[in-house]
User: Fold this.
Amino acid sequence: MSRASISSVSYNLLVEKIGYSYSRSFAFCLLLSWLYTLFSQIKIPLPFNLVFITLNPLPLYLAALMFGNYATHAYFLYLFQGAIGLPVFAGFCGGFYELLGPTGGYLFGFGLAMIFLSITRNIKINIPIALRLFVAATIVYTCGLAQLSLYVPPEKLFILGLYPFIIGHLIKIGLTLFLFTRIEASLAYKKETNNEII
Assistant:
């Protein structure tokens, strides 16, 4: 099965389930935003560092690949909930100041990365999924480091905001790629089987 056909299975199934109803679409995005919240609470603080390790990349990347714009809308709904003070960010924090703090750039970066993944998911050019995820990660860290640079000295920027996370992020990208291909292939097989039975 080609990459192009695999990348549309979950999205098409989602549209079949919720249709084009605004209320159902909003409900799905809201539920997905709460899933992001749950994963953001799984964090590992690093000593003497303003930035911490979370599992956020895994569900965010996976959702963007599978659900496209729905996943992106859900993420910005997640940011909105946090901005108005709901405790959705890591450590059950909330408030607009979280977006302006040392780690706020990473939050914005994930939003841009998900937009990128959603757009490239819909274009006809066959871009390898691994390359898309690598570019998405580059977007995240570019935005994160840009804002973190306002809070730490230049000589410590990469030490605090990039180097400790490279290996972990590559592992999350690998897990995302593995889960995405397995889930999509399984959904495609089930759909083809059901069509044959019908």
